């Protein structure tokens, strides 16, 4: 029998149950996918806790890679044996799953399954942030929170390839060194340094055109203080909880700031957008400009343990489940 992680009620990591499931045959437009590796992302925590409500019961997981087992009617361009990867539809914490063929992209032979599972959601998120939400330019200075995390390490490298200067916040000296070796020019250890004051110092008081904040509640308001007039606040995660509501007038008071809360799935909703995003990511990785760091792996059945490590900020780089 095929196994998967199932969630029957929102809650802590203990609600992640390893169960036998029936997958069935692919329907029209679907593929049955034998997964080789699955990625862990903070959005999985939001789904598990109910912050982003899901219809119960459900299987979490939004990123994976594997081999096509069977295709349903009206599927073109894919056949059994093809190596593929995806980011988006939940249901990833499973040995096998059904998935719409339109959400899959073919995986280059040079990219291993584990590497693909570690980069699809995070890598396309970085592409969205640096090229879609705000087109970072050569010579710009940006702030990246959680610079030693999965998204952070990719973002530091990609921004360096563009020619930007990267300021990044991390929690420890070890993470500061990791961020530095991946393109972060100015790591800030926020546990003992004031990141707003450090941004002021590093930029000579000029501040920044854009801040990328995946932390949320703990950093949101102070991130606004890092922006120069008409700067852009990009809030794309809530690792410390959702930010408190703010009056729109606060953005005016702090310099006519812009605020956006992007979600990757709105940037890859169309097939051509997905293909372009994946192609740019694959090109960056195959060129060697971006290296994907898998900081830790867990057997899929131990998903609860992995969630505890992620929420305790004990992980670095990407986390991958082996299937």
From TrEMBL:
Gene3D superfamilies, per the entry: Medium-chain alcohol dehydrogenases, catalytic domain (3.90.180.10), NAD(P)-binding Rossmann-like Domain (3.40.50.720)
Cite the Enoyl reductase (ER) domain residue spans from the record. Answer: 11-321
InterPro entries reported for this sequence: ADH-like_C, ADH-like_N, ER, GroES-like_sf, NAD(P)-bd_dom_sf, QOR-like, Quin_OxRdtase/zeta-crystal_CS
- Which PROSITE patterns does the UniProt record give? QOR_ZETA_CRYSTAL (PS01162)
Name the SMART domains on file.
PKS_ER
Keywords, sorted A to Z: NADP, Oxidoreductase
NCBIfam families hit by this protein: PRK10754.1 (NF008024)
Protein's name in the database? Quinone oxidoreductase
Taxonomic lineage per UniProt? Bacteria, Pseudomonadati, Pseudomonadota, Alphaproteobacteria, Sphingomonadales
